[in-house]
Amino acid sequence: MRRVRAAHRDQQRSELREPQWLLIEWREGHDEPLKYWLSTLPEDTPLQRMVFEAKMR
Q: Against a cut of 0.85, is the pTM above it?
């Protein structure tokens, strides 16, 4: 889990986007990640809560 800034059309923006959480599901034994999520949940959100919210989508 990392905080990142999405760079979609940033040249058209006057300010940088706020950082978001990048969650990556990468199961043991797999060569590549299975899924990715960007989340705007607060920075102090526990990992378990973030995973719950991502899986509910």
A: no
The secondary structure of residue 31, as a DSSP letter, is S
Quote the tokens at residue 48.
């378990």
Domains of the chain by residue range: 2-7+15-56
Question: Which residues are paired to 37 by β-bridges?
Answer: 23
Give which of 27, 43, 19, 39 is closest to 51, Cα–Cα.
39
Positive/negative CA dihedral, 37, 33, 2, 4: negative
Sign of CA dihedral 8, 13, 14, 19: negative
Of the candidate ranges 1-5, 8-12, 18-22, 48-52, the one whose mean pLDDT is the lowest: 8-12
